[in-house]
């Protein structure tokens, strides 16, 4: 019997029974063949089942264009009336164009797919009796998965075995406390998902322990998949540029159809070609001149950019984000871990009575000690040091193994401090049983544990100094006596906090209280009160070395960098100074609470730092900048950051620290959590935007020149200057090769020196339309001029010269457009291989068409001397015109 793709209600079954029904031996796992078969049958383990187009399909889609179909029909007709050579030539060119188009689109799609694969996690499964790592998308129902601390659960699964297994299911339930899981229970059928302790759910994280489980559902059948399905998924998203170009292409289609009809009528009146030929020519004109490929070019340019961004550690989840990045004008960034290294070292321990102990050593190495002047001190020396070390070691969920930190780096630094004070945290954790934990959150800015040891029950708290001071009623001196905390003392302590923070230290206060059984039941506020302050530690988290340069580049590019941090305003200001952020107003979360949205919007431009804010404030900050017309990027990692990430134009999630929720909400994932990567991504965004622009301008002006030439020629009585085959050939020479190459152009030298685009500024505004009109006029005049120059030798010569002239003019223009507004130079010729190949191929194809192949096009063959002369003339005219335009400051 075939194993099912979903096992219903697995939580009601004993583990062995679940495995049996899923047709797997839990000690060996599935065989590779069985796994392959199930993958085929049940589908990949992904939530968005993206449809994959093969090359053939992509190729055939190129013919879904109305004009191409008309052309094929007309070609068939001309075949029928006996114009076999013409018909075959047209057919060959059309197929060639379709292949070119398909190759490009196919490549873009493969790039996007590769990107998606990069983003997909891996999973450990038991296959053929061995544990192997596979792509999480290849996990199938019945697989035995092996999970351990730090893993993301790849699919829904029934536990077979769990060793002190704790799972973070906050992405599903919003509950941030890890859930304890066990294998040895069966549950009633109506147990709701969050309470099925014998199940693992796709997308959740193992925070502690290890386990084995049998997969009961994959992909869209998982709990996460069902939720995702409810959150209605939008169809294939198009970027604003694509929509703009879609609209433009439609308008051009109408215009071109009119012109083609006019050319047809004039030709008919002049009776200079057969009806079939005229028809073919007019339709070919439409095929050549309607830029159907424009929206696809956006995809191509943006997917190249997305690929480059991935290489620079920024994974793009939505293509539209590439476009938005290119125009980002505000980056609101977290401090810890993004601007700084998130490598914490405790440097000082300040006591409430004004003493300062110095802590030596670096990072998470246990070397170093705590000193009072020259004298090393330990927990033996005073009750204060002993209690401080206890808070550091026990109010702590981090671990350090072989120098690697698991958990919060700040807490890891506290473990190191405990060590340096002579207290072994592992030993302390054995001696004191943890009875309760009131977890840390950015909103609460504090954390408390209740422990029980020989001396009874203790409440141990740590958190932001203001918060802990407020909740303390007394303090301990170095001598060990406990004194009441009066108004005066509080003021003095806050002044010292301010002073130490201003030197760039992060501060964390430590406090304790003797507790009792009531502390296990009492409300959080009740437990975290009447504390005795033990002092505060000053922690250094150095800025990332590459950040100052990145900040400088961002500022130069006209981008406002705003720090949004949960940290103390003075610490934030000191770090801002270190990384070169311009000075500005510092707004705290408290002030923000009192401000209306309008007030916030009014001062937004002056603010440099938002300090002591919570994730909820972030969304308001993003909104304020958006309302001022900015295009806003915001970073985030926590579950509560999701609204801000969604609201922003560009949500940036942290790849290392980020929760799955934040990543899901984001447009871009920073693999290295680094601010510098955002700036690099902006640069790629700007580059791809320029490339879209140059390709669009190139194609449109080339097409416009073709239409204008045909039209003028008709009006001036020259008649049908280009036949169908010529028009299509022109299109291959211009669209096919150099245009594709332009999408690969490198960043312009001034790309990061100009201000960002304004919100909603179209690609094609007035300056661009002026550009198109002028350039098309220049090229048309050149083409008609060449016709008249060569026509005296015979009309076949005139047509050949005009044909070649226009092709070379367009190639010359592709060269000029490699810099939109700055002069080109010889040195950059070879810097874009794709373009260079396209240009050379185009030049050769152009020459072939008027020499060896001239007969096919019903043109007279030109000599090589003529070809060279026309090449030079076309380049002289077009480059001369373009470079003057750039110098005159007529920017596009
Ligand atoms: P950023 O928002 O730039 O990442 P941050 O990490 O300081 O900065 P939060 O994580 O919101 O922001 O922390 C706010 C404050 O809470 C910190 O400045 C610190 O005083 C305190 N704090 C941080 N981590 C803990 C913790 N594990 N336990 C107790 N208090 C903490």
Automatic annotation (TrEMBL):
UniProt key word Translocase:
yes
* GO BP field: intracellular potassium ion homeostasis; intracellular sodium ion homeostasis; potassium ion import across plasma membrane; proton transmembrane transport; sodium ion export across plasma membrane
Provide the transmembrane region boundaries.
87-106, 252-270, 282-307, 696-715, 769-790, 836-857, 863-881
Q: Which residues form the Cation-transporting P-type ATPase N-terminal domain?
A: 9-83
Name any GO cellular component annotation. plasma membrane
Membrane topology value: Multi-pass membrane protein
Q: Does the keyword Transmembrane helix apply?
A: yes
Name of the protein in its database record: Cation-transporting P-type ATPase N-terminal domain-containing protein
């Amino acid at each position: 019997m075939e194993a099912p793709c979903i096992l219903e209600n697995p939580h009601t079954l004993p583990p062995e029974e679940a495995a049996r029904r899923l047709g797997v031996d839990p000690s060996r796992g599935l065989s590779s063949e069985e796994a392959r078969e199930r993958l085929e049958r049940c589908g990949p383990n992904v939530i968005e089942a993206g449809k994959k187009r093969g090359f053939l399909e992509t190729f055939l889609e190129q013919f879904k264009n109305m004009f191409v179909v008309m052309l094929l029909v007309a070609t068939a007709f001309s075949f029928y009336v006996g114009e076999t050579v013409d018909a075959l030539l047209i057919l060959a060119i059309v197929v060639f164009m379709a292949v070119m188009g398909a190759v490009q689109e196919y490549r873009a799609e493969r790039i996007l797919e590769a990107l998606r694969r990069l983003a997909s996690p891996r999973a450990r499964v038991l296959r053929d009796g061995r544990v192997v790592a596979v792509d999480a998308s290849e996990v199938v129902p019945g697989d035995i998965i092996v999970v351990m601390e730090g893993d993301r659960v790849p699919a829904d699964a029934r536990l077979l075995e769990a060793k002190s297994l704790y799972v973070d299911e906050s992405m599903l339930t919003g509950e941030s406390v890890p859930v304890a899981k066990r294998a040895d229970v069966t549950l009633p059928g109506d147990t709701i998902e969050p309470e099925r302790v014998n199940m693992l759910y796709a997308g959740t994280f193992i925070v502690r322990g290890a386990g084995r489980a049998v997969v009961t559902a994959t992909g869209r059948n998982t709990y996460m998949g069902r939720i995702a399905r409810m959150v209605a998924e939008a169809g294939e998203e198009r970027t604003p540029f694509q929509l703009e170009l879609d609209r433009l292409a439609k308008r051009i289609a109408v215009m071109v159809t009119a012109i083609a009809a006019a050319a047809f009528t004039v030709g008919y009146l002049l009776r200079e070609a057969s009806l079939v030929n005229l028809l073919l020519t007019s339709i070919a004109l439409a095929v050549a001149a309607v830029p159907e490929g424009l929206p696809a070019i956006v995809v191509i340019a943006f997917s190249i950019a997305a690929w480059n961004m991935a290489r620079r550690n920024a994974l793009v989840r939505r293509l539209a984000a590439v476009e938005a990045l290119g125009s980002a004008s505000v980056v609101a960034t977290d401090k810890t871990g993004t601007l700084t290294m998130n490598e914490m070292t405790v440097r000082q321990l300040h006591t409430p009575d004004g003493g300062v102990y110095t802590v030596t050593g670096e990072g998470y190495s246990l070397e170093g000690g705590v000193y009072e002047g020259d004298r090393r001190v330990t927990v033996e020396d005073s009750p204060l040091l002993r209690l401080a070390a206890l808070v550091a070691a026990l109010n702590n969920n981090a671990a350090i193994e072989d120098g690697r930190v698991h958990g919060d780096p700040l807490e890891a630094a506290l473990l190191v401090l405990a060590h340096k004070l002579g207290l072994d945290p592992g030993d302390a954790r054995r001696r004191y049983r943890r009875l309760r934990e009131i977890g840390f959150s950015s909103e609460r800015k504090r954390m408390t544990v209740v422990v029980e040891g020989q001396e009874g029950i203790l409440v141990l708290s740590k958190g932001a100094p203001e918060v802990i001071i407020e909740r303390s009623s007394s303090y301990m001196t170095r001598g060990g006596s406990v004194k009441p905390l009066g108004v005066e003392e509080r003021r003095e302590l806050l002044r010292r906090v301010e002073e130490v923070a201003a030197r760039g230290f992060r501060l964390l206060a430590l406090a304790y209280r003797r507790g009792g059984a009531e502390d296990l039941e009492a409300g959080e506020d009740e437990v975290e009160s009447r504390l005795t302050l033990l002092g505060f530690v000053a922690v250094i988290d150095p800025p990332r070395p590459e950040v100052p340069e990145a900040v400088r580049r961002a500022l130069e590019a006209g981008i406002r960098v705003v720090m949004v941090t949960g940290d103390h305003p003075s610490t934030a200001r000191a770090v801002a100074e270190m990384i070169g952020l311009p000075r500005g107003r510092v707004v705290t979360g408290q002030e923000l609470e009192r401000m209306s949205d309008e007030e916030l919007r009014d001062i937004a431009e002056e603010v440099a730092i938002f300090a002591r804010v919570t994730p909820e404030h972030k969304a308001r900050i993003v909104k304020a900048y958006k309302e001022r017309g900015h295009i806003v990027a915001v970073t985030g990692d926590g579950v509560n950051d999701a609204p801000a990430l969604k609201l922003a134009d560009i949500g940036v999630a942290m790849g290392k620290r980020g929760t799955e929720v934040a990543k899901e909400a984001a447009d871009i994932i920073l693999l290295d959590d680094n601010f510098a990567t955002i700036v690099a991504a902006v640069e790629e965004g700007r580059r791809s935007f320029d490339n879209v622009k140059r390709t669009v301008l190139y194609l449109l002006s080339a097409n416009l020149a073709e239409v204008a030439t045909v039209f003028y020629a008709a009006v001036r009585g020259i008649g049908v200057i280009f036949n169908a085959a010529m028009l299509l050939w022109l299109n291959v020479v211009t669209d096919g090769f150099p245009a594709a190459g332009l999408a690969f152009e490198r960043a312009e030298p001034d790309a990061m020196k100009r201000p960002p685009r304004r919100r909603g500024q179209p690609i094609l505004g007035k300056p661009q339309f002026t550009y198109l009109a002028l350039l098309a006029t220049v090229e048309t005049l050149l083409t008609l001029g060449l016709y008249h120059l060569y026509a005296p030798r015979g009309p076949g010569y005139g047509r050949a010269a005009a044909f070649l002239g226009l092709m070379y003019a367009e190639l010359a223009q592709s060269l000029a457009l490699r810099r939109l507004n700055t002069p080109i130079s010889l040195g950059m010729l070879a810097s874009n291989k794709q373009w260079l190949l396209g240009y050379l191929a185009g030049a050769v194809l152009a020459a072939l068409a008027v020499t060896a192949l001239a007969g096919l096009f019903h043109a007279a063959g030109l000599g090589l001397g003529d070809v060279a002369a026309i090449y030079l003339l076309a380049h002289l005219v077009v480059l001369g015109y373009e470079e003057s335009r750039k110098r005159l400051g007529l920017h596009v």
